[in-house]
Amino acid sequence: FDNFLAGILILLREPFEIGDHIATDSVEGQIEEITVRDTRIRKTDGQLIVVPNSHLFSSPVTVRTSQQLRRTEVIVGIAYGEDVDAARKVMEDAVQKVDSVRDDIRDVQVFAKAFGASSVDFEVAWWTGSRPIDIRASRDQVVAAVKAALDTAGIEITIPYQTLTFKEPLRIAATAG
Questions:
Q1: Is the dihedral of CA 44, 49, 50, 52 positive or negative?
Q2: Contact present, 16 and 61 (Cβ < 8 Å)
């Protein structure tokens, strides 16, 4: 009875519809069908999940495609010796040139976010289509564009460094080869 009642309320209130991409605490995917008892959701890996409507009615549901655009972000780390303001400008310009970035509607944002273990970390945020494939494709294009722009500008993207300290002096011996 709970699933039936929840199904009626979902169909009447229409918090999401067929074609929307949703996420709950336990399932994420595109809605294919809504009945009075259950909702059929296709995961991005192709699997079909049949979810009782009572679960969707009683759990928080994020409707990822409720708007045409969605903000996404990546974290970019640059070496501590680099100029933060120059790097920010290079990244912002690179992101603005990416076709999938909708900077005509909302601004690209590049903020120094944190002092990482071996880098100054930036949050690079932009708006693109709201479907999961839009997000993934745009992120791919932005990462490639930012990497190329930083390389061209001679700004180092760091990799983690480790310094090893030994209690006793380290002996190095050459071997005959």
A1: negative
A2: yes
Q: How do residues 51-65 score in pLDDT, each as one tens digit?
A: 998 888 888 989 999
User: What are the start-end ranges of the E strands in the chain?
Assistant: 21-23, 28-34, 38-42, 48-52, 62-63, 69-78, 109-115, 120-129
Alpha carbons 63 and 10: distance in angstroms, whole number: 13
Tokens representing 149 are 């722009």
**Calpha distance 94→76 (Å, rounded):** 13
| Residues making up the chain, counted from first to last | 177
- pTM confidence score: 0.77
Count the alpha carbons within 13 Å of 10 in the hemisphere toward its beta carbon: 27
- CA atoms of 23 and 125, how far apart (whole Å): 21
**pLDDT tens, residue by residue, 66-102:** 889 999 999 999 999 999 999 999 999 999 999 999 9
Cβ atoms of 2 and 54 closer than 8 Å? yes
The residue written with tokens 């294009």 in the block is 141
Q: Which two tokens stand for residue 121?
A: 């970390």
